[in-house]
Design a protein that fits this description.
With 758 residues, the protein is mainly α. It is built from 19 helices and no strands. Among the domains are: 51 residues; 106 residues; 257 residues. The longest helix is centred in the N-terminal third of the chain and has 133 residues. It is found in: Early endosome.
Length: 758
């Protein structure tokens, strides 16, 4: 290879030299042709100049001859004049040839210099090529040396590989012997397994009366293998779908609500004039949107709650999907109901005098988009109702068509997303056109902004749902179609329900098996302890001592019991005596208690003291009660009077307490609201101050550039006037905000004082 490369390099050098020689020859030829062309050009220009001068001279001579013919000059003078003119022409020709000769000498000198320069350049290029050839030769030499080294290494490697091949041949012979032994063992194992298989088949045929896996109907009742990871994944996906559906529901509610507001505002404002009966009916139907949109979230929530870790979630067992499908069908019915009114409303808006041609075109685009939106919902409802069939009518959808249904749902979601993009785009263009209408109000602009924000939220939500469903499409098709072992599918929803009941029973049985047994003494240890108890006398003496001590404790407790029984009898006797004394002392003072009934409100505190004293000494408490209430006809009337008074007092205090609690809660809520308003006012104050700073900076910049921009003075004066008006409005808003902040601070202080007083 190196020699071939060297030869190629030599051929390249020779070719370069030949090319340089050919280029030199071509250069010489080109120079010669160029010189010839230049000479011819110069001669032609010189001849043209001569002819032009001769024509001029002839014209002058003609004019002179005509002028002199009148005077009748002599012919001798004219002939002498002609000879002088010919001499002058010849002199001019000679002078021009001399100049041409000088110019040719100059061109020849320049060509010679250029030739020398080219020769020097070619020589330098030849030297460079020679140096390159020397370098290439050095590279070739180094490569030849490396080639010889590699040849030696390859020869050594060849010897090593030959040795390895010999060892591998030996190992191959050993492996052949081993394979023969393994084949013999395999034959023996096959014979043994065949005999065992025959025995097991005989046992199955004799002992097993029924094999339920042969029939799909019976096999559907078998509990499949529990895939906990699959269930957790499905629950996670259902949770994500629930969050996306909640976002979609909020966006749809906002869109229908703001559309209702828009119908009542444009093209006729309901506050100033009556809108058309069509728009009245349309707004009435739109007002009912929550009753159709909210159930979608509820149906998805029920479906999410039905997917747990313990169940088997497939399309045959997903019974809650039917409720979601019904809610979606009701919402589709709502869309079909409002679609003609919406289309007629757009047509009526196009017929109004305020509608321009561009606005009419945007309305017709929205007209088409609304039809497409309803068609997309119809597709989604159709495919989701197909997914409900395995849990209601399994013959309506085959297992082989599940994948097709899921892919069609994904395609419908993509179409739904595209339709919403078009609606948001066309509606934004329509909103910008409606702002230019002369009767456009701020309420209309804000309503259009709200509708656009709801459409953007709806588009983003549907985009999330579309990407979510497309990313998990393979998981849905794989996880929602597994069944019992050995079977292809669940036969019917009834068999799936029975399978779930069997699964619950199996789980309960497994849990009962996993219950830990009660702690007990090991059998060997119990036997050893029994022998010790039967044989040892020390254990008997210890038990006798424990029995004696327990008997002594029982005797002491009996004595204490008798003592406290006697004490209780004495206390009862004392209590009866004191009650008798109380009855005697309270016999004649009923009228005084009626007059002193106003003093009873202070009796609550005294009663507390008496109860505290009664805990210490019951006899003393009875005497205090007799002192406090010295007049009563009998004990029952006195007790009723005290009871009624305290009940009234307790009711009054509880009512006061409840009133104070409600007032405190009310004041707390007011304080929180005031604090929020205060924080909002401070934020608005900061924003307004920043705007004021920016406005002041803009004013300073405008004033600084006033001298440089005198040509645009009028436009800047208008801008300055507008900015000053804006500043005035901002100052007014700032003053208002400051006043509101001061009032809020005062009200918060007053409320805090009231709370502290409470």
């Amino acid at each position: 290879q190196l020699r071939a490369q060297n030869q190629v390099l030599k051929k390249g050098v020779v070719d370069e030299q030949a090319n340089s020689a050919s280029l030199k020859e071509q250069l010489k030829m080109k120079d010669q042709s160029l010189r010839k062309l230049q000479q011819e050009m110069d001669s032609l220009t010189f001849r043209n100049q001569q002819l032009a001068k001769r024509v001029e001279l002839l014209q002058d001579e003609l004019a002179l001859s005509e002028a002199r013919g009148k005077k009748n000059k002599k012919s001798v003078e004219s002939s002498s004049h002609l000879s002088q003119e010919q001499k002058s022409v010849f002199n001019e020709d000679l002078q021009k040839k001399i100049e041409e000769n000088e110019r040719l000498h100059i061109l020849f000198f320049e060509a010679d210099e250029q030739h020398k320069r080219l020769e020097a350049e070619l020589r330098s290029r030849l030297e460079v090529l020679e140096t390159d050839a020397a370098q290439h030769q050095a590279v070739v030499d180094s490569l030849t040396r490396k080639h010889t080294d590699t040849i030696e290494k390859l020869q050594n490697d060849k010897a090593k590989l030959e040795i390895k091949s010999q060892t591998l041949e030996r190992e191959a012979k050993d492996c052949r012997l081993r394979t023969e032994e393994c084949q013999q063992q395999l034959k023996n194992l096959q014979a043994a397994l065949g005999s065992r298989l025959e025995e097991s088949l005989c046992i199955i045929n004799e002992k097993v009366p029924f094999n339920d896996t042969r029939s799909n109907k019976y096999n559907a009742l078998n509990v499949p293998l529990h895939n906990r990871r699959n269930q957790l994944k499905l629950r996670d996906l259902a949770g994500q779908a629930l969050a996306f559906i909640q976002e979609l529901v909020t966006a749809l509610l906002n869109f229908h609500t703001y559309t209702e507001q828009k119908v009542q505002i444009f093209p006729i404002d309901s506050a100033t004039d009556t809108i058309s009966p069509l728009n009245q009916k349309f707004s009435q139907y739109l007002h009912e949107n929550a009753s159709y949109v909210r159930p979608l979230e509820e149906g998805m929530l029920h479906l999410f709650e039905s997917i747990t870790e313990d169940t088997v979630t497939v399309l045959e067992t997903a019974v809650k999907l039917k409720a979601f499908s019904e809610h979606l069908a009701s919402y589709l019915h709502f869309l079909r109901k409002i679609l003609p009114y919406q289309l007629k409303s757009l047509e009526e808006e196009c017929e109004s005098s305020l509608c321009t041609a561009a606005l009419r075109a945007k309305n017709m685009e929205l007209h088409r988009d609304m039809k497409r939106l309803t068609a997309v919902f119809e597709k989604l409802n159709t495919y989701i109702s197909l997914l409900v069939l395995p849990s209601t009518k399994p013959e309506g959808l085959l297992r082989t068509n599940y994948n097709l249904v899921f892919t069609n749902i994904a395609a419908s979601l993509h179409g739904f997303h595209d339709v919403l993009k078009d609606i948001s785009k066309h509606y934004s263009q329509k909103a910008t056109l409606e702002q230019d209408v002369p009767t456009a109000t701020q309420k209309l602009i804000t309503t259009n902004d709200c509708i656009l924000s709801s459409l953007v939220a709806l588009t983003n939500g549907v985009g999330k749902i579309t990407s979510f469903f497309s990313n998990n499409l393979d998981h849905f098709t794989a996880s929602l179609s597994y069944g019992p072992k050995g079977g292809t599918e669940f036969i019917s929803p009834l068999s799936a329900e029975c399978m779930l009941q069997y699964k619950k029973k199996a789980v309960a049985y497994m849990k009962s098996l996993k219950k830990p047994c009660a702690d007990s003494v090991p059998y060997e240890e119990a036997l050893a302890n029994r022998r010790v108890l039967l044989s040892s006398t020390e254990s008997r003496e210890g038990l006798a001592q424990q029995v004696q001590q327990s008997l002594e404790k029982i005797a002491k407790l009996e004595q204490e019991k008798e003592h406290w029984m006697l004490e209780a009898q004495l206390a009862k006797i004392k209590l009866e005596k004191e009650n008798q004394k109380l009855k005697n002392s309270l016999s004649g003072h009923l009228t005084e208690t009626i007059q002193e009934h106003s003093v009873l409100p202070n009796a609550a505190e005294r009663k507390k003291e008496t109860t505290e004293m009664s805990l210490r000494d019951p006899i003393q408490s009875t005497s205090l009660v007799s002192d406090l209430f010295p007049s009563a006809p009998d004990v029952e009337s006195r007790e009723d009077l005290i009871k009624n008074h305290y009940m009234a007092r307790i009711a009054e205090l509880t009512s006061h307490l409840q009133l104070a609690d409600s007032k405190s809660v009310h004041f707390h809520a007011e304080c929180r609201a005031l604090a929020k308003r205060l924080s909002l006012a401070e934020k608005s104050k900061e924003s307004l101050t920043e705007e004021l700073k920016l406005a002041s900076q803009n004013i300073s910049r405008l004033q600084a550039s006033k001298d440089e921009l005198m040509t645009t003075k009028r436009s800047y004066e208008d801008q300055l006037s507008m900015m000053s008006d804006h500043l005035c409005s901002m100052n007014e808003t700032l003053t208002k905000q400051r006043e509101e902040i001061d009032t809020l601070k005062m009200t918060s202080k007053v409320s805090c004082q009231v709370l502290t007083a409470r």
